[in-house]
Structures are given as C-alpha cells and as structure tokens.
Batch of 2 targets.
Target 1
Amino acid sequence: MSHDKASLRTPSGDLYLAADIGGTTSRFALFEDRGDTMRLRGVERIPTSEADSFRDLLCLLRNGPLGPEVPRCRAGALAVAGAVQGGVQAAPPNIPWDIDIRSANLSGLPETVILLNDFAAQAYACKTTALDRAVTINAGQPDERGMAGVIGAGTGLGHGMLAPLPGGGFLALPSEAGHAAFAFVNQEEAVFEDFVRRELGLDYVFAEAVVAGQGLTLLHWFHFGQRLRPEEVAATLDDDSPVCAWFARFYGRACRQFALNILATGGMVVAGGVAAKNPVLVRHPEFWREFTDNPNYRALLQDIPVVLNTNEDSGLWGAALAAKLATGRQGTEN
C-alpha cells in the first residue's frame, strides 16, 4: 500500500470519500469541498490482490492512513470496474470477488455510500479539473449539446458517457461495450482472431480481450512468438513496431465504434493506464486512420474532439463529484 503525502490538516469544508476499485489497484481518496473547488487531501493505493473479499478491502482502508478521517466524510462513492446492478451490487469480471453494499460491513464509512461503475466515474471526471492537462489528439469541432464518450484500456476496457440535459446539467452513464464482440476486418486479422480464441479459450473475441493490457501480451506473442507481461511489451514499443501499429489500430477502431454508437459529437476522452503510460498508442498514425475510417461518417468523425487523459487518478475526482451530488449538492467542481 502507498499513501500520497497530501496534507491531512483539519478541513474547512465537507469531506467526501472516493474510491476506484480496479482489477489491479484499488485507490481511495479524501476530497475537501470548499464550495467552488474540490481539493484532494490524501490518496491510498492498495493492490486489489491483497484483499480476499470486499470486506477485506474495506478493512484495509479502515486500518490505513486515511481510516481515521473516513467516518467524518459527508458521503462516499465507490467506483468499481464492472456493471453495477440496482446501484448496490457488482460482480467485476477482473476481480475474484463480488461487491454488495447491502450486506457489507460499512461501519467506519460515511452514512451515505453509493456504488457506481468506474467509467461512470470517469464521465463525472470530465466535469472536474482532473482533465485539465489532457493531451489533444484532435481538436475537432465540439458540439456543446452532443454526447461525450470516455473509453479506457487498462486491466479491462471501460466505457462511459456524459449526456447533456435540456436546461443545463448532465447525466453520467456507464456501458459494458468492452464485452461486445470485436470486429476483425481482413484475413491477416482473422488469423490473429483465431489465435486469441484458441489461447484464451473463447467462443468469440470481445473488445476487452484485445484492447487492454493483455492485448499487448497477445499481440507480441502472435508477432514474435514470445509471451511477455504487458509492461515488458510496452518497453519495446515504437512507431515501427507491428505490435504498436496493430494495438493503435484496434484502439482506434474501438473508439470509432463507441463514438458512432453514442454519436459522441461532444468529444471522446481516451483514459486508462495503457495509453496514459504509452501515449504512442494513440499518437500512432494507425489510431487516427482507423478512428476516421467510415464510408458514411468520415467528416463527422474528423470533427469529433479527441483527447488523451493522462491523469490516472481522474476516476477518483469523478467519484468525489458523484458523492457530492448524492447529497443533493449541485455545481461543477474545479
């Protein structure tokens, strides 16, 4: 576990607990609301594998450096990498245990606790300063009344969207599009598709199988016959690498599919650790060529703003905003 050295001084505003529970790392943070600003006061990162259950994870939080202040929080939002059902339970595909806030021991947590999908939290993050340093991939022509999409490859492939509401306001929504079948488009890709189905024992290849960390492993294995961890593959990437070109193409395709599915004229945000750590994967020419490759809507796709979110903690900012909104408080956080 690690703890960022943000100040834990006595707060002058309300505190909110935010969590981003992922397949690899679970992050917890305290945010202080000062009316027109939300300030990060402390972060704790716990390898998700250290917890044998959701109950264990909460125990690690209570016994960690943030634990004493958590009960003082006005509300908490727990974002999880998986579909949330009924607002209370989830069976995350990349975590070996389920989450149900109805039966969990929530003592020591805020009185109000909500559960949401991690990419709904990433959508909320678009309304905070967490994306202030996002890198522009395509400036485009943003439609302020249009839907915005968020997609991110990490341990899995998350999707979320931000819908503007008539008269102002917005609605953050999750998606599990990463588990829909992925489209392979030529004979060379069909050979790779068969390779992935065989190696992973799948009936069909879904997007998360290839546009995520394990996709780097599979592509390197396919091209070079050597099985490496994603981070080892990443260390070999450059513009001339077939792994880089193929992954960039697949990522661009996943982004295009989602942009068309939700008509993301408000913009697309590429999030997740894979691209944040390896920007070459979305800067490669294959990403943009594939993103705009559509016979009917090429011009529309070229007008969609696309940015790379390099802030790997942005989901915490989004969760904090969701926690604040859960108390009935309004306003965009800065």
Target 2
Amino acid sequence: MVDKGFEAVEPPRMIEVGEHLLRVQVRGTGPTVVLDCGGSGAGIGSWGGELEAALAERATVVTYDRAGVGGSSGTQASSVTEMADSLHRLVAALDVERPAVFVGWSYGGLVTQMYAMRHPADVAGLVFVDPTATQEPPGSPVFRRVSFALTPHLLRMSALFARRNARSLRELAVTLQGMPGAIQEVAATRKQARFPEVPLRVVTAGKRPRMPAAQLEHLEADHLALAQQSPDGQILVAQHAGHQIPFDQPTAIVEAVDAVLGR
C-alpha cells in the first residue's frame, strides 16, 4: 500500500555553473522559492524537513550548497557579489519558473539582498529570515574586529579535534573571516542600487539572548530599514523563535512566503 502523504524527494544533483559544479536539490511544483542558507553555505538539508516539506506543498523549492561548501566544487567566493551571481547562473540553468521568491536566512540575507539588487528581473518576492544586520552597530569597533578575527581561529582549532564536522567548521571559519567585508559590501551597494518593488517580509526572532538594549534596538532598526526597502515591506515577528526560526517556528516562514506569493 502506498502512503499518499509521502513525497518522493529527488536526490541532489550537480549543475555546472561557470568553472565549478553546484549541488542543488529541487522539490515540489508551482512558483519557485529559492532558499539561501546562513553562514555555513551548505543549504541542502540545513533548513529542516518540516519547513521544506511545507513549502514544497505550495511551491517548487530550490536549495543548494554555495561554491566550495558542502557537496559543491570550487572554492568559496571572495565576495557577496560573486555568491549572488553564482546563484543567478544556477537558477538560470534550472528548468524552474522565474521570477521567483528568494528567501535568505542570516548570512543568506546578505546574498539575497545582493541578488535582488543585481538581478531584479528574477525576483517576484523577498523573505529575510532574521538577516545579518548591515548598519553600523553600537559599541567598540576594535572589539568587533578582534571578535571577527578570533572566532574563525577558534573554529579552526575546534576542527582539529572534531570527528564528524571538521570540514564544515573550517568552511564556516572562512565565511566568518570575510563577514566584515561582506557586510560593508552589501551596505555600500544599498546606497547605490534599489530593490525591485516586490512584496518583502522580514521575519525577525521574538526570543533574543540577553544583550545590551542598544544592541537590540540596533538590530530592530536594521530589520525595519530592510523592510522599508520595498513599498510592500513588512516586519513579521516569530514570537516563539530565536535565531533558528526554520526549526523553532517554521510556520512563520511559510506564512511569509504565502504573503509574498499573494496567498
């Protein structure tokens, strides 16, 4: 007896994009929703089965690993522009409907912003899931520089003793090492370019770890400024979630996707 509720998911495949191969997985039918993951860069399997299954019931869902990460070949891109253009070539190579809805989580919000500004004709809607802030934060610039320099070093040290995830720790270290430059790159581009006038939702975490009030206000202001990049931009608060919204409250993301799809 066949379970009618079971969805047969095709295994990931490799797509040639420029000088390297990107691992991509496509599931579901209907309008296209492209998920761009956080700083790990390995998008396949990183969004959680519940969220991906729910989205696949209403759309064609694309997940992928960035170049040099996970199952994709090549080396990690040195700029957000390169990441966005690589994704553009991947989407163009796939037989999926465009324009599409692009969903960026955390660091993936930087890639999604750059994509929207460089390839606006591809974009039907935007959803940002607790995205990395691009505005100058409060506090000491020296402390931030030290923190960004120290964290990749600690990740590489951890990789020396890790049994299973050593490679992913090293890949994350590379991404975080370039984080300050990535933030500055996107912030500078936003001063020169505009987002397409499409529905835009920023899903922000309702449960934050303890942080100074100034830091919290900065994050909230940054997310509001991002929502205001579109005349149809809104903030949605995932009241029961921390930064891991795809796992803590996946329904918040599904509702945001439905909103930009006009459902």
